[in-house]
Structures are given as C-alpha cells and as structure tokens.
C-alpha cells in the first residue's frame, strides 16, 4: 500500500470521517491516475468513486484505477447525490481546492452532512516520492537540462530575454516535454534583482548577470532549476555575490537528511548569506517540494516545520537580489536519501562554468 493511502486511512480514523472529497487535479491524479483537468474523487470506506463530465468519460475509463467511474452533466448535483447515497454523516473535503461558491452549493445540497475542511491534514500527502515518480522527475530534469545546454550556446549580449526563453521552451517540447513547468524566468542586469522576473524585451548586456529559472514537465511531473550566467568577465562584486550564494547552497544541501526540519535547512543557507552582509537581500524561502505541482510540500523556509523524510524531493535555491545592481540565484533539486541527499539536477553551478 502506498504511503499516501496509509496516511489517508489514518486520517479518516482520527477525524472519524466516512469519506473524503478530492477536488484538486494534482491529488486526484496522484490517487487514481486521472490526467484530465476536471473531476472529483470520493475516497470512502466502501471504496473509491471518480466522477467527471462527458469530455473525459472514455479517458477516465482507461486511466482511473481501483475506482468506480461515473459521468455527470452537472458536477455539484451529481457529487452531492453520490455522497448522499453513501449515507455518511462526516465528509472531509480538500479545502484548498474547493472555491467558496462550490462549498456553498455543496452545503445547500447536503444539509444533513457535516463537511469537514481539510488543509494542513493533506500536508505531505505527496511529499515522499515513489520509484516511478522519481523516474519521471529525472526525465523532466534531463529534458530541461539538455534543452538549456543547447539554448545557451546561442546566448550572447544583444539578445532579448524573450528570445532565450522562447528557444528554451521550444526545445522542451522537441525533447518530449509536455510544456514548461512555469513561465520561464530570464532576468538580466538590474532585472536579475527581481526573483520572479519573467522574460522581457530587454536586451542582455555584457558584464551583466542573467538569472535563468526553467523547468519542463514530463508525464505530469515537473523539474525546476536555476542557473545564473555572467556575460563576460565578472567584476569583484559579481564574484563575491556569486560565491556567497554558491557556498550558501552547498551548506544547505549538506544539511539535508532525514529527521531535520525545513527551517533548519533554510537556516544553513541564511547563515552564510547573513554573515556576508547580504541577509536583507534574501527575501524568499530556500526551497519547496516538486512533483505533480511545481510548488508543493515540503516547505524549506523559516516557516518550514515539516520533518524531512527519506524519498522527499525539493529544491535548494538561495539567492541574493540587490536593487539597481542585479542578482544571483542557484537552484538544484535534491532527493533525500538514508544519510543525506543526492542532486537530481546536474548542471554545474561553479562560476567558471557559467561565464559566457
């Protein structure tokens, strides 16, 4: 039995639930295999029931495992009818995925049922990856990395950020990727100080740093990696900031092992950056889980209370962003092993390998 299934059974016993209603596409795909964009999964003591509309009825019959499959014309009335048929009194639901209007309508149609919101209870449901999931993540990483290596051969001063992003994303698809994991970030010069600086029409200039944050999706699973490139010989400040971030990343990766918390890993990176005098320029967390969603549990930040387990996959991505100057971010994906972790991403983060 998958770890997630064991956790759900324990959760139902602890909360005295008769069923759990899943609404979000990531958890639905994880639990029953459905890859479409809309549906509902009822995880009940009597068994599993999946519902979707006519667009996905045949697809669901081929994809959905270990669940009864039903087609609906109107989602909420049909889901409500099935829940009534279970005669359950306490139904948990995926609070982070059900919008308020859907919740209101479910409440209206299920007046005798207690709808129990579940949010933190699902934290970590998909965090520990199975072997098949690791294989898909590694394939997504390879697609993105090899695409990057080909694209960057043509990168040069004078080229627009959007041209680099477009070339990279085109190669993702040529190599078997479904689509980019997110809008590719290419931020050069002063724009490299924007942690989420989506590619713009700005031309890259010699002497600048260029933060490239990219990822590809393969069979539902995402990769996420960041390289910082330097256009020409780096000056003293660029060398210093780059080296501080690189050392911070290395220390955080060395801190990864089962039993530590996300905040302890974050603190390892933050200590290096703080001591170097750049603490106020590191405003985001050090990492996040990656899988069916590009941002999922565990959280690697000062708020990261999750205890790290073997098999978890997440990013380690410290950065320094100085307004008016630019920035440096280095990001790798790691898989937690028995005594530490291993990198899934493999492109070099050494400064000498990132000077164009």
Give your account of this protein's structure.
- It is a single chain.
- The protein folds into two domains: 3-122, Creatinase/prolidase N-terminal domain (Creatine Amidinohydrolase, Chain A, domain 1, 3-Layer(aba) Sandwich), CATH 3.40.350.10; 131-354, Creatine Amidinohydrolase (Alpha-Beta Complex).
- The protein starts with a helix and ends in a 13-residue tail after the last strand.
- A six-stranded mixed β-sheet has the order 4-3-2-1-5-6, with helices on both faces. A three-stranded antiparallel β-sheet has the order 7-10-11. It has a three-stranded antiparallel β-sheet with strand order 8-9-12.
- It has helices at residues 3-15, 25-32, 57-63, 75-85, 100-109, 131-152, 161-174, 236-255, 262-275, and strands at residues 19-22, 40-44, 47-52, 68-71, 90-94, 114-118, 179-180, 185-188, 209-214, 216-218, 221-222, 225-230, 287-289, 296-300, 313-316, 319-322, 326-329, 332-336, 341-343.
- Helix 8 runs antiparallel to helix 9 (262-275).
- The longest helix is centred in the middle third of the chain and has 22 residues, at 131-152.
- The chain is elongated, with a radius of gyration of 23 Å.
- The protein has 356 residues and is α+β, with helices and mostly antiparallel strands.
């Amino acid at each position: 039995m998958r770890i997630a299934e064991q956790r759900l059974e324990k959760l139902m016993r602890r909360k005295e639930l008769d069923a759990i209603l899943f609404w979000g596409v990531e958890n639905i795909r994880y639990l029953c295999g459905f890859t479409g964009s809309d549906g509902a999964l009822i995880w009940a003591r009597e068994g599993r029931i999946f519902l979707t509309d006519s667009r996905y009825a045949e697809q669901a019959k081929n994809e959905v495992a270990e669940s009864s499959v039903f087609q609906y014309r109107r989602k909420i009335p049909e889901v409500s009818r099935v829940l009534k048929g279970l005669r359950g009194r306490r139904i948990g639901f995926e609070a982070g995925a059900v919008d308020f209007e859907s919740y209101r309508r479910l409440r209206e149609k299920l007046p005798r049922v207690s709808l129990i919101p579940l949010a933190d209870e699902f934290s970590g449901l998909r965090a520990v990856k199975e072997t098949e999931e690791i294989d898909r993540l590694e394939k997504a990483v390879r697609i993105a990395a090899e695409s990057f290596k080909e694209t960057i051969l043509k990168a040069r001063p004078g080229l627009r950020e959007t041209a680099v992003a477009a070339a990279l994303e085109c190669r993702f698809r040529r190599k078997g990727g479904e689509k980019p994991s997110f809008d590719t970030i290419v931020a050069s010069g002063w724009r490299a100080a924007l942690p989420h600086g989506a590619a713009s029409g700005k031309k890259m200039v010699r002497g600048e740093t260029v933060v490239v944050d990219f990822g590809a999706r393969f069979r539902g699973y995402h990769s996420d990696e960041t390289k910082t490139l330097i256009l020409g010989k780096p000056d003293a400040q660029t060398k210093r900031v780059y080296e501080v971030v690189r050392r911070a990343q290395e220390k955080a990766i060395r801190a990864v092992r089962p039993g530590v918390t996300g905040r302890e890993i974050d603190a390892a990176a933050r200590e290096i950056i703080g001591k170097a005098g750049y603490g106020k320029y590191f405003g985001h967390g050090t990492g996040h889980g990656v899988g069916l969603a590009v941002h999922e549990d565990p959280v690697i930040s000062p708020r990261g209370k999750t205890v790290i387990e073997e098999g978890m996959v997440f990013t380690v991505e410290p950065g320094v962003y100085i307004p008016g100057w630019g920035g440096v971010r280095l990001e790798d994906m790691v898989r937690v092993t028995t005594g530490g972790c291993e990198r899934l991403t493999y492109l070099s983060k050494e400064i000498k390998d990132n000077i164009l």
